[in-house]
Amino acid sequence: MILNNILDIVIILLILVSIIAMLATVIGFIRLPDELTKIHAAGVTGSFAVELVLIAGFVYFYRYLHVLEFKFFLAIGFLFLAAPVSAHMISISAIIYNKHVYSKNEKDEAKKVLEDIEKLNK
Question: Which residues form a coiled coil (predicted)?
Answer without folding.
Answer: none
